[in-house]
Amino acid sequence: MTPITEQSSLYDQLENKSVEELTNYINQEDQKVAKAIKEVLPDVNRLITAIVDKLNAGGRMFYLGAGSGGRLSVLDVIELPTTYGLPKGIYNAVLAGGVNRLVDALEEKEDDINEGWDVLVASGINSGDIVVGISASGTTPFVLEGLRKCRSLNITTGCIVSNPSTPIAAQADYPVVVITGPEFITGSTRMKCGTAQKMLFDMISTTVMIRIGRIEGNSMVNVNPINDKILDRAVKILMQKTGIANYSEAKSILLDHGTVKNAMVELEKKIN
User: Is 110 part of the annotated catalytic residue set?
Assistant: First the structure.
């Protein structure tokens, strides 16, 4: 049976369609993605809980992926140190072909059954960590073999796939199987599958960061003020959280302590 991600598009003769028709059809397909994710939220919640438990116990999180999904996982991971002040090395992405070659799109590397595991070993992977495989098809050799090796050593595994009953899901302790249906362009899983993966990465990492204490209220109290825009945001968060009315004073305090959270802690000590 043809995997759902490879089944023929519901649309044909696309070259004869107008711009208005094409964008309308794509939009119709995109609207199916959030509904598909809603169907698997219980599985997403179980995966998130497992990640939170590992991180709270001192472990690490690794995405293991190739192609569009793997690249999207890298983009998710690289934003966490700035947005949440998360120390590097806690939340990681292992990409077929190497994270340092992200823009090269080395699709042939997804067939390499050794690279993913070799990178995990070099990272000191152990039973305190969790590895989440990313594969729209659910069959990518790079991901599959990495998860197999993990399970053989009692390393917790999860996955995000877009076909039912896949080999990768069978190797996952916490599988998330989000069925988005045939792609608008037959087999082009950078589209709906990629959109689903991006939405899930946002959902997973944001919820994890909240649950491990990187957010207070709804504010980025651990944001790393690395540029003027983020510095301004952090100063205003500090003013809102502490009641400091003077912008220059709040900015000076923030720069002295590095983050809103650190500044709040020091101000509380002075008050006490």
Answer: yes
